[in-house]
Amino acid sequence: MKRIALVNGPNLNLLGEREPDVYGHTTLAELENQVEQFAGQLGIEVRSFQSNSEGALIDFLHQVRTWADGIVINPGAFTHYSYALRDAIAGISPPVVEIHISDITGREAFRKISVLQEVCVKQISGLGLSGYFRAVDALVAHKALAQVQEVCDDKADADECLTSVVRILKSAYPRYSWVGIYLVEGNELVVHNYLGRPTPHERIPIGQGICGAAVTEEATIIIPDVNADPRYLACSIETKSEIVVPIYKGSAVVGELDLDSDLTDAFHDGDQELLEGCAEAVGCIL
After folding, report:
1. pLDDT-derived band of residue 112, with 50, 70 and 90 as boundaries?
2. Shared-domain flag, residues 179 and 84
3. Which residues contact residue 201 at a Cβ distance below 8 angstroms, ignoring those fewer than 6 apart?
4. What's the total number of domains in the chain?
5. What secondary structure, in 3-state letters, does the chain show?
6. Cβ contact 24:128 at 8 Å
7. Would you please indicate which residues are annotated as catalytic (active-site) residues?
8. What is the average pLDDT score of the chain?
9. What average pLDDT does range 165-193 have in this prediction?
């Protein structure tokens, strides 16, 4: 993901003035700058555009269809009735994430409807301006998951596949400081492959630590602050948060994805969605 188009629709030029109790005090120019800085940390170039005209928005989508690797769009009121904008999104190849500052499902009846949602890869609503950053994350995750699925669909060599999965995930986000795959061997989890600092925990008894707990509970575990969780098996003083996702083969847990971050509270539901998708793909080749 190298280039993203950021598209804002009608009345969003009035951000900071229009209904600040709903949309906040940040101006559109400030928002665009913040998104550009956030994306820049991921090595992504952003091209921003805003218009109150439906035709201008469609023309811009047509113009960037061969430039952008992904698109973030806040369609404003066009969300609820613009089939022309829907057709434009459906007719171009870059994946599109639909973003809304307010929670459209909790507002007036007409705002609950999005005619665009089905042609977008994701809709993010109600997170305020931080939803724009989540939308950029979602595009990166969409690409990473597609790469993992492609590698796993090949199924030429399971070991090479797992190595590639770790590499893809490690390169997805700078906040992923450590990425590893553990496989179940008897009553232990054994690290198969990882990228990041060396780990002292190459074998973890099932039921011990956060990794062992995820197998026992058969559920994804997100730890915002590892130092506040007594189950954490210390690996590095730099590690602040962790997410562990079980890998299933049929109904049995056969391994897990384990990711650490040097940032507190680094993992959110978007990371969980990405990693659970990757775990499902990996389970098919084990």
Report:
1. low
2. no
3. 191, 209, 211, 233, 235
4. 2
5. CCEEEEEECCCHHHCCCCCHHHHCCCCHHHHHHHHHHHHHHCCCEEEEEECCCHHHHHHHHHHHCCCCCEEEEECHHHHHCCHHHHHHHHCCCCCEEEEECCCHHHCCHHHHCCCCHHHCCEEEECCCCHHHHHHHHHHHHHHHHHHHHHHHHHCCCHHHHHHHHHHHHHHHCCCCCEEEEEEEECCEEEEEEEECCCCCCCEEECCCHHHHHHHHHCCCEEECCHHHCCCCCCCCCCCCEEEEEEEEECCEEEEEEEEEECCCCCCCHHHHHHHHHHHHHHHCCC
6. yes
7. 23, 100
8. 94
9. 96
In a domain, 145, yes or no: no
33 and 100 share a domain? yes
* pLDDT tens digits, 228-246: 999 998 888 899 999 999 9
CA gap 90, 117 in Å, rounded: 11
d(CA 55, CA 61): 10
Residue 227, domain extent: 156-283
| Rounded Cα gap, residues 246 and 182, in angstroms | 9
